[in-house]
Write a structure and sequence with these properties.
Strand content: 15-25%
CATH superfamily of the largest domain: RecF/RecN/SMC, N-terminal domain
Helix content: 40-55%
Distance between the termini: 22 Å
Number of domains: 2
CATH architecture of the largest domain: Up-down Bundle
Number of helices: 10
Radius of gyration: 22 Å
Order of helices and strands: EEEHEEEEEHHHHEHHEEHHEHEEE
Number of strands: 15
Shape: globular
Largest sheet: 6 strands, antiparallel
C-alpha cells in the first residue's frame, strides 16, 4: 500500500499545495511550526476518517476560510483508489473513487496506515481509554464488522445510560433486559476481536522490543482476563454480569461494566509499565507496539500499511534511530523531522521540505 500524491486546500496552514510521495522512505522536514505534522495528519485522516490530533473536523479548516479539502491517490494490491474529503463548518462530504459515501465505515479499509508520534506515549502512560482508542482505530481499519459492532454498542450503551438516570426504577428494571440483549450481542463481537488482536500483537511487539533494546528488557501485552471465550459465550457472560448489577448501575446512573471499560496490561520485565516504566522505557514500548501493529496489518491484509512517523527521531538515541529506519525497508514511510540528514544513513529517500505551509520538493 502506498499513497502517490496528496492535495491540500485550506487545510490547517496549507493554502493550496500538492505533495508527491515516493514508494519508500519520505522525509518531510523543516523548522518547527511549518506544517510537517499537518501533512502527516492529512494522510491519516483520509485513511481513517478522523484526525489523531483533534475531535472536531472544523478545527482542520484554515483560519479565515469556509472549507478545507484533502485529496489523495493511492495504490495497493487491488488497484488504485482515490479519496476526497471536503470539510465545512456544518459537516463533510467524502468521495471514494468519485462516488459520494456517507458512512465512516466506507472510508476504512481503503488506505491502511499506522500513525506514531510522541503523543502516542499516552498509550502507556494514560488511562484505559487511550489503550481502547488504539485498539479501536487499528482493528476498525482491518475489520468493518468490528467498526459496525463498536458503533452500535456505543449507541445502545448511551441509550442504556440515559435509561439508568430515569427515576421510575420499576420501569427501568423492566426495560433494561431489552437493551442488554442487543448490547451484549455487539459487545461480544468487540471483546472477541480485541482479544484476537492482542493475541497477535503481544509476541510481535515482544520480539521488536527485544530488538530495540538489544534483549535487555522483555515486553508483554495481554487483555484483561475476564472476557474470554467465543462470541456466544461472551454474550451470555456479559448479559449475566449486567443483570447481576442492575441496582449498582441504577445507583451510579451509568453502566459500570462491559467492553467500554476494557484495558490492556502492558508489562516490562514483570512490572506494570504504566506505573513503573521510565520515559525511555515508555517510548521504546510504545514504538514497539506501533511497529508490531504494522506487521499485523501485513499479516491480515496481505500488504504493509503506510507508516507515519511524526517527530519521533528527536526522542530516540542514535542506535534506536538506525534500527527504526532499518525497519522501514519494504514499506512506504512518511517521516517528519527538523533535519533530514539525521535520518538518512545512506538510504534512498524522497525529501520534502516544508516552509510556512509551502512545499519545497
Amino acid at each position: 500500500m502506498r499513497i502517490k500524491n496528496l492535495k491540500l486546500k485550506n487545510f490547517r496552514n496549507y493554502e493550496d499545495e500538492s505533495i508527491t510521495f515516493g514508494g519508500g522512505l519520505n522525509v518531510v522536514f523543516g523548522r518547527n511550526a511549518q506544517g510537517k505534522t499537518n501533512c502527516a495528519e492529512a494522510v491519516f485522516y483520509l485513511c481513517t476518517g478522523s484526525s489523531p490530533r483533534c475531535r472536531r473536523d472544523k478545527q482542520l479548516i484554515r483560519h479565515g476560510c469556509d472549507f478545507a479539502e484533502i485529496c489523495a491517490e493511492a495504490e495497493g494490491m487491488y488497484g488504485s483508489v482515490s479519496i476526497d474529503a471536503r470539510i465545512t463548518e456544518s459537516g463533510r462530504e467524502v468521495r471514494l473513487n468519485g462516488n459520494k459515501i456517507t458512512r465512516n465505515a466506507d472510508i476504512l479499509g481503503n488506505i491502511f496506515s499506522v500513525f506514531f508520534s510522541p503523543h502516542e506515549l499516552r498509550l502507556i502512560q494514560d488511562g484505559p481509554d487511550e489503550r481502547r482508542r488504539f485498539l479501536n482505530v487499528s482493528i476498525s481499519q482491518l475489520s468493518k464488522p468490528y467498526y459496525v459492532a463498536l458503533s452500535r454498542y456505543n449507541k445502545i450503551l448511551e441509550q442504556r445510560n440515559n435509561l439508568l438516570k430515569n427515576r421510575d426504577v420499576s420501569m427501568v428494571m423492566d426495560t433494561l433486559p431489552v437493551w442488554d440483549e442487543q448490547l451484549c450481542k455487539y459487545g461480544a463481537v468487540v471483546a472477541c476481536k480485541r482479544a484476537e488482536f492482542a493475541a497477535m500483537l503481544s509476541p510481535i511487539a515482544r520480539d521488536i522490543h527485544a530488538e530495540l533494546t538489544d534483549g535487555a528488557e522483555e515486553l508483554s501485552i495481554s487483555p484483561e482476563k475476564k472476557y474470554k471465550g467465543d462470541e456466544k459465550q461472551l454474550s451470555k457472560r456479559l448479559f449475566d454480569e449486567l443483570s447481576a448489577n442492575y441496582e449498582r448501575d441504577i445507583r451510579l446512573g451509568f453502566t459500570a461494566s462491559g467492553p467500554h471499560r476494557d484495558d490492556l496490561d502492558i508489562i516490562i520485565d514483570g512490572t506494570d509499565a504504566k506505573n513503573f516504566a521510565s520515559q525511555g522505557q515508555t517510548r521504546t514500548a510504545a514504538l514497539s507496539i506501533k511497529l508490531a501493529e504494522v506487521e499485523i496489518f501485513k499479516r491480515m491484509s496481505g500488504e504493509y500499511p503506510i507508516l507515519i512517523l511524526d517527530d519521533v527521531m528527536s526522542e530516540l538515541d542514535l542506535p534506536r534511530r538506525k534500527k527504526l529506519v532499518a525497519r522501514t525497508d519494504g514499506l512506504q514511510t512518511i517521516l517528519t523531522c527538523t533535519h533530514a540528514e539525521r535520518v538518512l544513513y545512506g538510504k534512498e529517500v524522497t525529501k520534502i521540505k516544508i516552509e510556512g505551509g509551502k512545499v519545497k520538493q
